[in-house]
Write a structure and sequence with these properties.
Residues 1-46 are annotated as: Disordered. The chain is of the alpha+beta class. Among the domains are: 56-241, Orthogonal Bundle (Hypothetical protein af1432); 251-389, Beta Polymerase, domain 2, CATH 3.30.460; 527-597; 623-680, no CATH class; 688-762, 2-Layer Sandwich (Alpha-Beta Plaits), CATH 3.30.70.260. The chain is 45% helix and 14% strand. It has 29 helices and 21 strands. Strands 1, 2, 3, 4, 5 and 6 form a 6-stranded mixed beta sheet that branches. The protein has a 4-stranded mixed beta sheet with strand order 13-15-14-16, with no helix packed on it. The radius of gyration is 34 Å and the shape is globular.
Length: 766
C-alpha cells in the first residue's frame, strides 16, 4: 500500500552518505519555503530557512542534558541500526532517508522523552519500509521498543477496497496501540510534524490530501492531549498547504490593519500590564502576541464572520506563581480596561477536557480595540504547552489532581476502546473519533457536584452516556435544575442534571437524531445492532422451521454433516449466524430448507406445475407486532391486524409486511421464493399506524373536535395534514395508531357522527 505521508521513500539504489551513517556529518541542506505552482500562490516561509543539517553528534550532545551515558549509547546504536536498514532509500526531496527518523527523534528529545521512545522514533519506519520485522527489533532492542514501532507502522500487508479504508484501518491500529502506550501517538505526532515541515517536495494533490488529514486528525489529537505547540504548528502548516490563498489573504489583512500602530498598541498594553503588576508588588511575566492564522480563519468560518468583524486577534498572557495570584491579577486587568460582558471563562476551576487551565477574559483595550488576556501559573503554562508530554518532561513537578493530563488522557483512551468495540468497521470508528476530537465547552454538574465537559449542543442523552454506558442505555427521563425535562433537551453551562433510569429500558433509535457526542452515538448504534441481530436470529429460526416442517424436518433434527458442510460453503461460523442471515432477508429460507433437507435438486429442478401445492403449506408465520426491527410494516398500504397480509424479503431489513391487495406486490407474483406466507397471530400486541382522510366543512375548532374524538377512543395521532379544497370543504389527513381493524372501525364511526364531517375513509397510497 502506498504511504500516505511525506516520508514515502524513493526505492532507487543510492550510495551510502560519506562520513559513516547518513546524517552523521552530512553537508547542510536548506529548509525550503513553500514552492509556488500552477495551483497555489506564493506562500511566505513558515519556518526560517538556512538551518544547518542536524547531526547525530548534535542529537547525542543534547541527550547528555537529561539522559545517562548508557541510555545515550543505546540511542546511538538504534541510529546505526536504522541507517543500515534504510540504506539506499531516499526521501522525495532526494536526501538520505535516515534524516527523517533523526529529525523525529530530535522533536521528541526536545520534549524530553525517555530513551526507549527515542529509540522507537529512530526506528519508527523500519518495519514498514525495510525487511526488518517486529521480532528482530524485540530481539535487538526490547519488546517495549518493538511494540512502539509496530504501533506507529501502517497496515501495508493487507488489501483494502479504497484509500479511505486503508487510512482508517491504519489510524485505528495506531489509536488502539496508543491505548496500550501513549508514546505511540507522541511518536506519530512528531513524525507528522516533520513530514509537514518538509512537505514541499510532494505533488500538489499529495500536499492537499496530507494537509487535510493533518487538520482533521493529527492537529485535533495534539489538542486533545494538550500539546499546544505541536497543534499550532500542524494547523499553520496544514492551513498553508490546503488553503494557501486563504492564509495569504488573512495574513495581508493583518498586515493591512495598521501594522505599525498594532505593534505599538501591543507594546502599550504590555507596559500597562507590567506597571499594574509592579504597583501591587506582583511578580509575573507579560507576553503579547498575535493569534495564529489558522485560529483566526477557524473563528471566521465557525462563527460566519468576516475579518473586519473579528476584534480579539491579539492576546496577552500573564504568568504568575500561584493560583490565588491569578484571581488578583484578574481584578487588576478589569480595573485597567473594561471587560466585555459574557466573555470571561474560568478554566482553573473547571479545566478543559485535555487538562488546560487558565483564566480568560476579553477587554476593550486602547483605541477601542478588543483584546484577550489569559492569566495562569507557571505550572499551568507548562501543561498548556506540553500536555501529556509533561508527564515525562516534569515528572518531579507537582501537578494538579483536577487537571492531570495523563489521567484525562487515560479516560479518553478508555472511551476509544469502548468506541472500537461497538463500531462496525474501521471507517465508522474513525468517523466517531473525528467527532470525539472536537469537544465543546459545555460544563454541567451531577447532583453530587461532579463536573462533566460535553460538546456544545450536547443533550441529556449525551450526558447520560458520559456518566456511564449503562446509565445511557437505561435512561428514561431527567431533571435539569430539579425540573423534569425531555431527553432531547440541549444542555447549557452550569446546569445540574439528574438522570432517571429504569431497569428494563433500552436505547431508542430516535435518539440518533439528536445526540452529538461520539460515545453516545456509538453506544446507541451498538446496542441497537445487537438487539437487531438477536431479533433477526429469532425470526430466522422461525422462518427456517416453518419451511422445514412441510419437508418432514426440523432445525433440531437436521443431519449434522450436511449442516456443517453448508455452513462451511457459505462462510458462516455457526447456525446462529445462519438464522441471522435468514432473519435479515439476506438468505431465503425456502431455498435453505430444501438444501438442508437434502431434496434441493428434486424441488428446484421440478417444473412449477408438477410441484403444484407443495409450495403452499399450512405453516404460516404468525405476526405478533412485537418482532422488533426485523419485521417492518409497509408505508404504502399500512397493514393492521384484521387485514389479509403477505410479506416480502428485504435484504438487510428482514421482512416487509403488506396488505394482500397492495398494488406494490404486483411484480412479485411469479417469484414465490421472494414472498412469505404470513398471518396475524390470534392476539397481536402493540399499536399499528394507519391513515384516514376526513372531509369536513370549514368551521372554527373542527380539527380540535375530531382530534378529541380520536383520543377519546384510545388512539394516538402521529401526524395530521390539512388540504384546502374550495374554501368551503377541507380534507384532514390523520396518521393514527390503532390496535386492529375493529378499533379503526370504532374510531371512524365515532368521527362520522361529528356534524361538520361529510365523509371519512381509510387511505391506501399504493
Amino acid at each position: 500500500m502506498p504511504r500516505t505521508d511525506e516520508a514515502t521513500a524513493d526505492r532507487r539504489p543510492a550510495a551510502r552518505p560519506e562520513s559513516g551513517a547518513a546524517g552523521s556529518d552530512a553537508p547542510a541542506q536548506k529548509v525550503q519555503a513553500l514552492k509556488p505552482s500552477d495551483w497555489t500562490p506564493p506562500v511566505e516561509p513558515l519556518s526560517p530557512a538556512g538551518d544547518t543539517r542536524y547531526l547525530i553528534s548534535d542529537f547525542c550532545a543534547y541527550l547528555e542534558s537529561y539522559l545517562p551515558p548508557e541510555q545515550i549509547s543505546e540511542c546511538y546504536h538504534a541510529y546505526l541500526f536504522g541507517a543500515e536498514a534504510h540504506e539506499g532509500q531516499k526521501r522525495k526531496s532526494g536526501e538520505p532517508y535516515i534524516y527523517h527518523p533523526l529529525a523525529v527523534a530530535r522533536i521528541l528529545a526536545e520534549m524530553r522523552m525517555d530513551y526507549q521512545c527515542l529509540i522507537a522514533a529512530l526506528l519508527h519506519d523500519v518495519i514498514e519500509d525495510t525487511p526488518v520485522d517486529k521480532a528482530q527489533l524485540a530481539e535487538t532492542f526490547s519488546e517495549e521498543v518493538a511494540e512502539l514501532v509496530d504501533g506507529v507502522s501502517k497496515l501495508t500487508k493487507l488489501d483494502f477496497k479504497s484509500r479511505a479504508e486503508a487510512q482508517a484501518a491504519s489510524l485505528q491500529k495506531m489509536l488502539l496501540a496508543m491505548t496500550r502506550d501513549i508514546r505511540v501517538i507522541l511518536i506519530k505526532l512528531a513524525d507528522r510534524l516533520h513530514n509537514m515541515r518538509t512537505l514541499d517536495s510532494m505533488s500538489p494533490e499529495a500536499c492537499r490530501r496530507i494537509s487535510r488529514e493533518t487538520l482533521d486528525i493529527f492537529a485535533p489529537i495534539a489538542n486533545r492531549l494538550g500539546i499546544n505547540w505541536i497543534r499550532i504548528e500542524l494547523e499553520d502548516l496544514g492551513f498553508a498547504h490546503y488553503w494557501p490563498w486563504r492564509r495569504r489573504v488573512i495574513q495581508r489583512a493583518l498586515q493591512g490593519r495598521g501594522g505599525g500602530a498594532r505593534v505599538e498598541m501591543i507594546g502599550l498594553v504590555e507596559t500597562a500590564l507590567r506597571h499594574a503588576l509592579q504597583q501591587e508588588d506582583i511578580e509575573g511575566r507579560v507576553e503579547g502576541r498575535q493569534k495564529h492564522l489558522y485560529g483566526i480563519y477557524r473563528k471566521m468560518r465557525d462563527k460566519s464572520r468576516g475579518f473586519s468583524e473579528l476584534a480579539d486577534v491579539f492576546a496577552f498572557r500573564v504568568t504568575v506563581d500561584r493560583v490565588d495570584t491569578c484571581y488578583r491579577v484578574l481584578g487588576l486587568v478589569h480595573n485597567l480596561y473594561k471587560p466585555v460582558p459574557g466573555r470571561f471563562k474560568d478554566y482553573i476551576a473547571i479545566p478543559k477536557a485535555n487538562g488546560y487551565q487558565s483564566l480568560h477574559t476579553a477587554l476593550i483595550g486602547p483605541q477601542g480595540i478588543q483584546i484577550e488576556i489569559q492569566i495562569r501559573t507557571e505550572d499551568m503554562q507548562r501543561l498548556a504547552e506540553s500536555g501529556i508530554a509533561a508527564h515525562w518532561m516534569y515528572k518531579n513537578g507537582v501537578q494538579s489532581s483536577t487537571a492531570n493530563p495523563a489521567a484525562l488522557a487515560a479516560d479518553w483512551l478508555q472511551n476509544l476502546l469502548e468506541m472500537q468495540r461497538d463500531a462496525g468497521n474501521s471507517v465508522e470508528f474513525l468517523e466517531h473519533v473525528k467527532v470525539d476530537l472536537f469537544p465543546g465547552e459545555v460544563y454541567v454538574f451531577t447532583p453530587k457536584g461532579r463536573i462533566h465537559s460535553l460538546k456544545r449542543g450536547a443533550t441529556v442523552v449525551d450526558f447520560a452516556y458520559a456518566i456511564h454506558s449503562d446509565v445511557g442505555n437505561t435512561c428514561v427521563a431527567a431533571r435539569i435544575d430539579r425540573r423534569m425535562a425531555p431527553l432531547s433537551t440541549p444542555l447549557r453551562n452550569g446546569q445540574t442534571v439528574e438522570i432517571i433510569t429504569a431497569p428494563g429500558a433500552r436505547p431508542n433509535p430516535g435518539w440518533l437524531n439528536f445526540v452529538v457526542t461520539a460515545k453516545a452515538r456509538v453506544n446507541i448504534r451498538g446496542h441497537l445492532k445487537n438487539i437487531k441481530q438477536r431479533e433477526a436470529q429469532a425470526l430466522g429460526r422461525r422462518l427456517l422451521n416453518a419451511e422445514l416442517t412441510p419437508l418432514g424436518a426440523e432445525v433440531e433434527t437436521l443431519e449434522p454433516l450436511r449442516l456443517a458442510a453448508y455452513l462451511e460453503e457459505t462462510g458462516l461460523g455457526s447456525l446462529e449466524d445462519l438464522f441471522g442471515e435468514i432473519g435479515l432477508g439476506n438468505r431465503l429460507a425456502p431455498l435453505i430448507a430444501r438444501r438442508l433437507a437434502g431434496i434441493e435438486g428434486e424441488e428446484s429442478d421440478a417444473p412449477a406445475a408438477e410441484r403444484g401445492d407443495r409450495d403452499v403449506h399450512p405453516h404460516r408465520l404468525a405476526i405478533r407486532g412485537t418482532e422488533g426491527m426485523v419485521v417492518n410494516f409497509a408505508g404504502c398500504c399500512r397493514p393492521i391486524p384484521g387485514d389479509a397480509i403477505t410479506a416480502v424479503f428485504s435484504p438487510g431489513r428482514g421482512i416487509v409486511v403488506h396488505r394482500a391487495e397492495c398494488r406494490n406486490l404486483g411484480g412479485l407474483e411469479g417469484k414465490r421464493d421472494k414472498r412469505l406466507d404470513v398471518e396475524w397471530s390470534r392476539e397481536p400486541e402493540g399499536e399499528f399506524a394507519t391513515e384516514i382522510r376526513v372531509e369536513v366543512s370549514n368551521r372554527r375548532g373542527v380539527l380540535a373536535v375530531i382530534a378529541g374524538a380520536i383520543a377519546e377512543l384510545g388512539s394516538n395521532i402521529e401526524n395530521v395534514q390539512t388540504i384546502e379544497k374550495d374554501g368551503v370543504m377541507t380534507d384532514l389527513e390523520f396518521r393514527i395508531l390503532v390496535k386492529s381493524r375493529h378499533h379503526l372501525a370504532r374510531i371512524m364511526r365515532r368521527v362520522r357522527l361529528i356534524p361538520p364531517v361529510d365523509r371519512i375513509m381509510r387511505i391506501t397510497r399504493s
